[in-house]
Amino acid sequence: xxxxxxxxxxxxxxxxxxxxxxxxxxxxxxxxxxxxxxxxxxxxxxxxxxxxxxxxxxxxxxxxxxxxxxxxxxxxxxxxxxxxxxxxxxxxxxxxxxxxxxxxxxxxxxxxxxxxxxxxxxxxxxxxxxxxxxxxxxxxxxxxxxxxxxxxxxxxxxxxxxxxxxxxxxxxxxxxxxxxxxxxxxxxxxxxxxxxxxxxxxxxxxxxxxxxxxxxxxxxxxxxxxxxxxxxxxxxxxxxxxxxxxxxxxxxxxxxxxxxxxxxxxxxxxxxxxxxxxxx
Length: 280
Fold this sequence. Notes:
The structure is a single chain. The chain is mostly helical. The protein has one domain. Helix content is 52%, strand content 1%. It has 11 helices and 2 strands, in the order αααααββαααααα. A two-stranded antiparallel sheet has the order 1-2. It is globular and about 65 Å long. The two termini are 26 Å apart. It is found in: Endoplasmic reticulum membrane. Its cofactor is Zn(2+). It holds the Pfam family FA_hydroxylase.
């Protein structure tokens, strides 16, 4: 039995609309040829795409014709800590030593008279700031980018939505597509690193980035666990899992937090635990 099934049983009132993993409208699964890569097909679904993509299947899916690109679009969960934790540790060590030299000052671009010294004692605060900022970035990306509704007449925007996030809602049990593959992740991570380096002194931006990188690793590990782990009933992780399951199977336009629900509280997108519709 898949680890998510007992929780689905607990939440069956909340997921009744698509109980049975897409049996609400089984004929809609015939809109694509499952023997062929899906990415080039989904753009033709038009106005049917949004309903189709939120009717999950249990089968693994293929996106690309190219075996190489297909391989780069998938990964195992442990690639995330193996690749990114050493980088986070190295950057933390490097920028701590840079701060310890006592040459880093903030606001020197605007004024030298009122610039602020940034000694090594600020390292924990900057690191935790990056960790905290990641939770907001995670929420904003998930809500406003991953859950944008592409125009039904835009073939390429539908394709873009599917490759970014729609594939995950269509095949939530495909474990090879749960965490961010290293190659596309590298591009996004590099963007944030360059951005922080441009707006902050190198050691300050680098330290914030290192904290954010740890936040990303924690996010991806929690996300994988919410799909394939079995947290104890009543635990914090069980609450997160229940929240995420309801996001997938009943409330796709709310419940955007993965590693924390703090921003769902703040932006009023929390899925109410008590709002379970009754079975007919």
